[in-house]
């Protein structure tokens, strides 16, 4: 019998009694297996197929054996349970480990959180401090820049004021010179008129004497007495004694062929400010001095001085002389020339073949572009050399240029373009002036060959105390005066010369006088000028003036920021001039300036305290006991509080 029809069977329809399957005719009750695990039966003309159903397996690695339709488990159920249990335990252990790690992280985070917060706060505070410091530095820098600008403007105004004063003085001098010249011209004209009158009177007297002699001769011949005649007396204004014919020692001798306006006095000829366009031909062999200043002379020919060979002094300043305008043999015939002034011309090089007798040479306010080793050759007798206001610098001044000047004592190189002290200065040098250059540094060996130096002026440059070498001039035994005014100093420089007597530091940014800075000096500093700086009550220490108490003669501390009288002043027994004006001083203690126990005559001649905040009513009567006279104390005016 056929099994009942199951839903899983697949039935194919065919002819009655036969079955057709995939193109094949199957007889009734025929069975076949078209594929593995499927069995088909032909019954009643229908094909019934049944697929073997496999039970569900629960294993990790099922496998279907060869010839079988359903997979079977390769492992038993017990190992499978063990594996599942081990897997669950591993998962649980891992979860527990993760939980422990999370808990540990939370605990550590909880422990470190205060430290982290503190670190964050510290970092925040550090950033705030950094910002505050930066802001404060910026404000200080801005304040310093504003102060520098203000100081620079003040110095500029001061310089303009000084220039205006100098200009006014120059105008006044020129006006006075013009008046003097007018008076001299008028006097010259009067002298000329008087000479003419005297000549006329003398001629008239001679004529009368001749007539009288003729009359006497005629009387002798005729044996008759001559007719008496009363001589005509000259007018009082015409008869002048010879002593009155020369006034002020100036007489213009006629017949010399001098340009109009020239004045000849004894052996000096002055032809200044006459608009002369050429060198005048002169023939005065005894002439010693010639001044042609302030004209328009543009050349000096070779024969210019042939008629005046004994000249000792020539002044050709303020003309239009260029380097090619002076003939190379113009000065060769002058065997006695001592002084030559060529200031205010257009010279680009030092003239050639200057006389070896020269002792003073001035070529300031020209256009000198350099000085080479031959510029001063043969001038071994030169004592004074002035080259101010030119285009000189260390790049165009040969270090061997000054070597021939074995007698040079006085050298002026101000208002040029030097950035350092020029090299090759002669050992004989006594005074060196380098003001108004661009000097930034004083190197250690720059003055090694000039041990005789007595005066050095370096004002209006760009020096600060850090750019002055410690041994630059410490061991100089003759250096007595140094001018470092109007530079960029913030401290009084250390390592100053032992022999220093006069120190000028006006118009810097000095804020402090270090202690013992003058203690090594012998015999001691006498003149100290610190006006127009930034000194306050903290900038002067009790030891600042140690070493100068017995030597100081003049001390200038005016135009600073002092609130009190600096310590140590009452110990300066030889002080004559003290300037404390234009500060912020509010009181004068009894013993701050004068020591009441000191015996002897008063030493202070001038004491200036005006333009402070001092109430004169609160000053002790003995505060000024060392002042020479009450009128020597200047207290008015004072600033208002």
Overview of the molecule:
This protein is an alpha/beta fold and 641 residues long. Among the domains are: 1-53, Complement Module, domain 1, CATH 2.10.70; 90-251. Helices cover 23% and strands 13% of the residues. The chain has one helix and 25 strands. The protein has one helix at 77-221; strands spanning 10-13, 18-21, 24-27, 31-35, 38-43, 46-51, 62-63, 72-73, 263-265, 268-270, 289-291, 313-315, 339-341, 360-362, 384-386, 410-412, 431-433, 455-457, 481-483, 502-504, 527-529, 554-556, 577-579, 606-608, 633-634. The strands form four sheets. It has a 17-stranded mixed beta sheet, with no helix packed on it. Strands 1-6-5-4 form a four-stranded antiparallel beta sheet, with no helix packed on it. Strand 7 and strand 8 (72-73) form a beta hairpin. The chain is elongated. This is (spotted green pufferfish) hypothetical protein. It comes from Tetraodon nigroviridis (Spotted green pufferfish).
């Amino acid at each position: 019998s056929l099994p009942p029809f199951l839903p899983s069977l697949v039935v194919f329809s065919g002819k009655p009694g036969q079955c057709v399957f995939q193109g094949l005719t199957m007889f009734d009750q025929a069975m076949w297996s078209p594929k593995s695990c499927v069995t088909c039966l032909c019954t009643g003309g229908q094909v019934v197929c049944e697929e073997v159903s496999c039970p569900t397996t629960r294993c990790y690695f099922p496998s279907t054996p060869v010839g079988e339709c359903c997979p079977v488990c390769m492992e038993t159920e017990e190992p499978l349970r063990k594996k599942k249990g081990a897997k669950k335990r591993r998962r649980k252990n891992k979860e527990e480990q993760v939980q422990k790690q999370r808990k540990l992280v939370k605990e550590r985070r909880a422990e470190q959180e205060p430290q982290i917060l503190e670190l964050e706060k510290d970092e925040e505070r550090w950033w705030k401090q950094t910002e505050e410091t930066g802001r404060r530095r910026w404000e200080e820098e801005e304040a310093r820049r504003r102060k520098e600008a203000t100081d620079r403007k003040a110095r500029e105004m001061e310089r303009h004021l000084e220039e205006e004063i100098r200009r006014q003085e120059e105008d006044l001098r020129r006006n006075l010179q013009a008046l003097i010249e007018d008076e001299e011209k008028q006097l010259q004209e009067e002298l000329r008129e008087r000479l003419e009158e005297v000549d006329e009177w003398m001629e008239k007297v001679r004529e009368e004497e001749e007539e009288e002699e003729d009359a006497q001769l005629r009387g002798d011949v005729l044996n008759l007495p001559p007719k008496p005649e009363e001589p005509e007396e000259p007018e009082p204004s015409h008869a002048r004694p010879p002593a009155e014919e020369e006034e002020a020692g100036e007489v213009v001798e006629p017949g010399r062929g001098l340009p109009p306006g020239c004045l000849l006095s004894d052996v000096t000829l002055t032809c200044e400010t006459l608009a002369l366009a050429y060198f005048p031909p002169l023939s005065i062999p005894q002439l010693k001095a010639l001044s042609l200043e302030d004209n328009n002379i543009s050349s000096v020919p070779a024969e210019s001085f042939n008629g005046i060979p004994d000249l000792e002094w020539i002044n050709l300043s303020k003309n239009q002389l260029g380097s090619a305008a002076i003939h190379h043999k113009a000065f060769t015939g002058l065997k006695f020339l001592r002084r030559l002034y060529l200031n205010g011309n257009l010279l680009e090089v030092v003239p050639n073949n200057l006389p070896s007798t020269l002792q003073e040479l001035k070529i300031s306010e020209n256009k000198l572009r350099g000085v080479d080793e031959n510029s001063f050759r043969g001038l071994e007798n030169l004592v004074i050399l002035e080259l101010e206001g030119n285009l000189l610098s260390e790049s165009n001044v040969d270090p061997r240029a000054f070597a021939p000047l074995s007698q040079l004592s006085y050298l002026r190189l101000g208002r040029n373009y030097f950035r350092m002290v020029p090299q090759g200065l002669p050992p004989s040098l006594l005074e060196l002036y380098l003001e108004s250059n661009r000097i930034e540094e004083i190197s250690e060996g720059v003055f090694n060959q000039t041990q005789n130096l007595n005066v050095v002026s370096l004002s209006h440059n760009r020096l600060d105390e850090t750019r002055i070498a410690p041994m630059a001039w410490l061991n100089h035994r003759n250096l007595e005066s140094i001018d470092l005014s109007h530079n960029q100093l913030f401290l009084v420089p250390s390592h100053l010369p032992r022999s220093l007597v006069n120190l000028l530091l006006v118009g810097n940014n000095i804020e402090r006088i270090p202690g013992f800075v003058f203690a090594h000096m012998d015999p001691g500093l006498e003149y100290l000028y610190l006006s127009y700086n930034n000194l306050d009550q903290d900038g002067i220490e009790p030891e600042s003036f140690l070493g100068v108490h017995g030597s100081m003669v003049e001390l200038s501390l005016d135009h600073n920021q002092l609130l009190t009288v600096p310590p140590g002043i009452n110990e300066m027994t030889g002080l004559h001039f003290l300037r404390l004006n234009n500060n912020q001083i509010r009181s004068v203690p009894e013993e701050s300036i004068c020591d009441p126990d000191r015996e002897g005559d008063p030493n202070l001649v001038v004491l200036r305290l005006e333009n402070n905040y001092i109430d004169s009513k609160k000053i002790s009567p003995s505060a000024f006991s060392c002042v020479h006279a009450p009128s020597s104390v200047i207290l008015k005016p004072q600033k208002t509080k």
